[in-house]
Amino acid sequence: MSAEEPLFRVVHGTPTAEELAALVGTIVVRTRPATAPAPNPVSTWARSARPAGTGHTAGPGAWRASALPR
Known about the structure:
The chain is an all-alpha fold. The chain has helices spanning 17-31, 44-48, 62-65.
């Protein structure tokens, strides 16, 4: 593909400048490589309110064991 060759062309109709801008924006977004979103960091303050680890697992008797002291 040369520098003079268009990336796309309109073959039917006469789109407005806004319609062409929307089309170009869509093509640009769709051709970018997908990246994973950055993980949401948890603040130290929020982390301190969570239990460190209960050690309980799901299963028979888990509900009763969750109320018992360790």
